[in-house]
TrEMBL record:
HAMAP family hit by this protein: Ribosomal_bL32
Residue span of region Disordered: 1-20
Xref: InterPro entries: Ribosomal_bL32 (IPR002677), Ribosomal_bL32_bact (IPR044957), Ribosomal_zn-bd (IPR011332)
Organism: Anaerotignum neopropionicum
Protein name per UniProt: Large ribosomal subunit protein bL32
Bias type Basic residues, positions: 7-19
A single BP term in Gene Ontology: translation
Length: 59
């Protein structure tokens, strides 16, 4: 015989949902051109290079 689901209290529900927003800090790598720390697979903000090629002109 089917039984109705038990009620989940607000505190129990919110404790479970509070874990889902946590994210890890982004990893950083050295730029291959200038050596500055940058997010991997992104254009370097310091020199504008990606994969040792200048993509953006930075003053």
């Amino acid at each position: 015989m089917a039984v109705p689901k038990g009620r989940v209290s607000k505190s129990k529900r919110d404790k479970r949902k509070a874990q889902s927003w946590k994210i890890a800090t982004p990893s950083l790598v050295k730029c291959s051109k200038c050596g500055e720390l940058m997010v991997p697979h992104q254009v370097c903000k310091a020199c504008g290079a990606y994969n040792k090629k200048t993509i953006i002109k930075v003053d």
